[in-house]
């Protein structure tokens, strides 16, 4: 996104999602009446410009932006003067790291370490929540703008979103996912005893399958194969597209599961329809039993921070427990990893992760307020009309600041 005013030019890139966009948009429009965009990245860019025009120095402008936004934001950008910078929200919900080229002449920011690796760069550090990093001739200059931020790194990054070849806290996401698989074996010994073989839903189910295989000794059959050229993410597609995409995306090697009791490793169950189709395929291929091993705990509430599962209505776990979910999707058992086991495997503490979609406790006040209000309505039969933070009735009433 780019913006320009009063001789100041900026360009930013943005990872995250802002919850109080309507309020911010009103503020931006008061200053720039021609501004019409509803896109949160655009609004963040305009808000930063507005503060750069008002404040005496760059750090004060970024601090004001951090204090005004409710949500997740990892931002990198460049000023018209050529100054390069990056900053992260006071909860550090999204990843953002810094690195350098082997000759030290080029500095870079990246959401994940994988993109530093593939460009031959060396990772230097992960930005802290509430930190601003600027680039000068002598390297990175780090400045903590918000004191005592409450860290709330997205736990779903570990189970689904991040690349397995990225590292958080020095550990590959792949290794953490293997631990998730080992945890599931410990948590469900009776199911392990009753199973013949492991199968994974490619690709995020592959890493925990390795952990299940190692801890249980069961054979891991690579009997579910993903179509190389169907690359859409099924869970963000429209209903009719989703069904045909999942159907084309995963193929089962029938004779490998025929007559078998199968443990299927999967990263998460959002709506449940992806899993349901895969189970139907397995049954058709002759699987005798299907046990789902799911690394991310049951998702009970929407995400406000950039993962597109933003209503209660779309989440099968918001209305049903694991036994009911098993019946709906046709599994003999649905075995979720517990929250405690997941947290342990990440090497973080419960208080340093965002677990809002599995606990209902949101790290930012406005998201909590909106989630609570909508939950009451939803449980009373209300049908949500879109993303909660974009619906008039919740977002226009709320005006909290991030803390
Ligand atoms: S609500 Fe869930 S998906 Fe969203 S940031 Fe928090 S942990 Fe991640």
Protein described:
There is one protein chain. The chain has 15 helices and 20 strands. With 403 residues, it is an alpha/beta fold. The relative contact order is 0.11. The structure holds iron/sulfur cluster. The site of iron/sulfur cluster has 11 residues, from helix 13.
Brief synopsis:
The protein is of the alpha/beta class and 403 residues long. It has helices at residues 21-31, 40-54, 58-68, 113-118, 156-161, 173-187, 189-193, 206-216, 239-249, 273-284, 322-329, 339-346, 356-359, 365-379, 392-395, and strands at residues 2-5, 8-18, 71-79, 84-88, 97-100, 107-110, 122-126, 131-136, 139-144, 153-154, 167-168, 171-172, 197-200, 219-220, 224-226, 250-252, 261-266, 289-294, 333-336, 353-354. Iron/sulfur cluster is lined by residues 93, 154-156, 303, 305, 307, 354-357.
Architecture blueprint of SSEs:
Layout: E1 2-5, E2 8-18, H1 21-31, H2 40-54, H3 58-68, E3 71-79, E4 84-88, E5 97-100, E6 107-110, H4 113-118, E7 122-126, E8 131-136, E9 139-144, E10 153-154, H5 156-161, E11 167-168, E12 171-172, H6 173-187, H7 189-193, E13 197-200, H8 206-216, E14 219-220, E15 224-226, H9 239-249, E16 250-252, E17 261-266, H10 273-284, E18 289-294, H11 322-329, E19 333-336, H12 339-346, E20 353-354, H13 356-359, H14 365-379, H15 392-395
Parallel strand pairs: 10-20, 13-14, 13-17, 17-18, 18-19
Antiparallel strand pairs: 1-2, 2-3, 3-4, 4-8, 5-6, 5-7, 8-9, 11-12, 15-16
Helix pairs in contact: 1-2, 2-3, 6-8, 6-12, 9-10
Iron/sulfur cluster (SF4) binds at residues 93, 154-156, 303, 305, 307, 354-357.
């Amino acid at each position: 996104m780019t913006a320009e005013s009063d001789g100041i030019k900026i360009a930013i890139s943005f990872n995250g999602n802002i919850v109080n966009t309507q309020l911010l948009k009103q503020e931006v429009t008061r200053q720039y009446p021609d501004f019409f965009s509803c896109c949160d990245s655009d609004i963040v860019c305009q808000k930063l410009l507005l503060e750069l025009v008002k404040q005496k120095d760059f750090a004060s402008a970024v601090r004001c932006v951090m204090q005004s936004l409710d949500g997740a934001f990892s931002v990198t950008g460049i000023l018209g003067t050529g100054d390069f910078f990056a900053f992260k929200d006071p909860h550090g919900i999204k990843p953002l790291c810094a690195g350098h080229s082997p000759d030290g002449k080029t500095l870079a920011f990246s959401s994940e370490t994988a993109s530093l690796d593939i460009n031959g760069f060396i990772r230097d550090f992960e930005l802290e929540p509430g930190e601003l990093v600027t680039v000068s001739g002598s390297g990175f200059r780090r400045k903590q703008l918000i004191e005592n931020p409450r860290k709330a790194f997205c736990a779903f990054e570990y189970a689904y979103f991040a690349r397995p070849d990225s590292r958080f806290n020095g550990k590959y996401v792949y290794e953490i996912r293997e631990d998730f698989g080992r945890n599931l074996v410990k948590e469900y010994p009776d199911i392990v005893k009753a199973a013949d073989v492991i199968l994974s839903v490619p690709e995020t189910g592959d890493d925990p399958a390795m952990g299940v295989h190692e801890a249980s000794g069961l054979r891991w059959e690579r009997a579910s194969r993903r179509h190389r050229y169907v690359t859409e993410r099924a869970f963000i597609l429209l209903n009719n597209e989703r069904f045909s995409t999942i159907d084309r995306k995963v193929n089962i090697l029938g004779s490998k599961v025929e007559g078998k009791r199968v443990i299927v490793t999967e990263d998460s169950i959002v709506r449940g329809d992806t899993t349901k189709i895969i189970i139907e395929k397995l049954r058709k291929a002759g699987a005798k039993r299907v046990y789902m091993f799911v690394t991310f705990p049951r998702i009970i509430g929407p995400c406000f921070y950039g993962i597109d599962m933003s209503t209660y209505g779309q989440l099968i776990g918001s209305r049903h427990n694991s036994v009911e979910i098993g019946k709906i999707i046709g599994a003999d058992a649905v075995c979720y990893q517990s929250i405690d086991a997941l947290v342990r495997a990440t090497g973080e503490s419960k208080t340093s992760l965002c677990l809002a979609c599995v606990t209902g406790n949101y790290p930012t006040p406005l998201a909590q307020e909106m989630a609570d209000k909508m939950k009451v309505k939803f449980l009373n039969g209300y049908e949500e009309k879109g993303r909660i933070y974009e619906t008039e009735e919740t977002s226009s009433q709320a005006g909290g600041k991030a803390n």
